[in-house]
Here is the input.
Amino acid sequence: MSKPLHVNRISLGKASAILAAMIFLSRVAGFGRTLLTSHFYGSGPEANAFNAAFAIPEMMSIVIAGGALATGFVPTFSAYLANEQHDEARHTFAALLSILFVGAGIFTLAFIGLTFTPLIAFIAPDSAPLELYVANLRLLLVGQFFFILGGVFTGAFNSLRSFWLPALQPVFFNVGIIAFGLFGALSGQSIIWQSYGAIAGAFLGSILLQAPFAARAGLSLRPRFDFGDVGVKRVLGALVPVFFGLASGRILSLSLPLMLAPDTTAVMNASRLAILPLELLASGSAIAIFPTLSQLAAQGKTDEVRTQLFALLRQVLKRIGAATVLLLLVAFPLVRLLFQHGKFSGGDANLTAQVLMCAVLALPGLAVQQLLARGFIALGDTKTPTLAGMGAMLGFGALAALFAPFGTLGITLASTLAVSVLAGVLWKTLEKKLGDL
Here is the structure.
């Protein structure tokens, strides 16, 4: 029998603080990337091409790297650890890493192949040059391949309660974009250099940074193609529930608006500002508490799941509510201060601020959705958040069609309404399952 895997003994408060600090560092790097794009390219065709190209890779990352693998993996891996089944945990990790390397590689190559066909014209936005959009999309898809593999490491490290290492992935990703983007802009090259930076940053943060630590922690990096592994089946089976359940909030608030809104740069810039308080005040806590909820549920301690989940929910909503009001009050001066320089005009800033005001109204709903969806999944109920997410996406489609005449603002408002309804449905359903708040 191999040496047992070491699970860090860390309190929820300390884990949340570590994650909040790392997320803040990541967001600072993310703002640097956004400011770089806005300064050198404004809200013009090149910026729209780069930002729109993020929509599909971002969705892949949310669903697979940040969803089924990083979160769907946690209950399985945590259950093994709780039951002292360390060899089984190692086997599942190695099998997932091997299968995803091949599967994600084939999927990435297939999607890149699609970009060489006329079908890509149906996906490309009207506001961006097709050739530049496609060139950026191909490179960003390669970057997301590394993020998908990194999601396996993230799930394992989160289960072992080693949270800081996975949180560095987006920092490296954004720093890569900034470094390569600065070189491209200052040397008179195309915005395509930012996409080259995305590949470099994703590879460094997802693979080169995490793989050595995984080996040191006792996880196996040897290829193991075991499709019959129980853990592999559970994780791959979580793809659809995670897409519609866990990831639905981010898809509704970012990925779909990026694909549908006329001004993708305004959506991207506004979302970076709106998401910051969510990730600092809610996402870190949701990620930190998830392994605990999963282990409590695996041990049949449903009452403790309810107590910890709802106590955290109340705390998060107080913070998010205050942040929402603050952002509504300072939207216009904040956007002008951060973005109105270089090629980013006053008109661009005004539109971005208006989009921001629509987007921040979704923050309470997004916080509720992130926490409660994890609560359902930890309890083994993937059906409820999946059906709720499906309904929310269908509702968004109807609202987007209704509000389409209002352009980018209409699409953003449609996503906010869909997220808010989704959060309300999850809240009421979980209350029926566990008891009133």
User: Anything to note?
Assistant: The chain has two domains: 1-237, 241-437. The longest helix spans residues 302-339. The chain is about 80% helix and 0% strand.
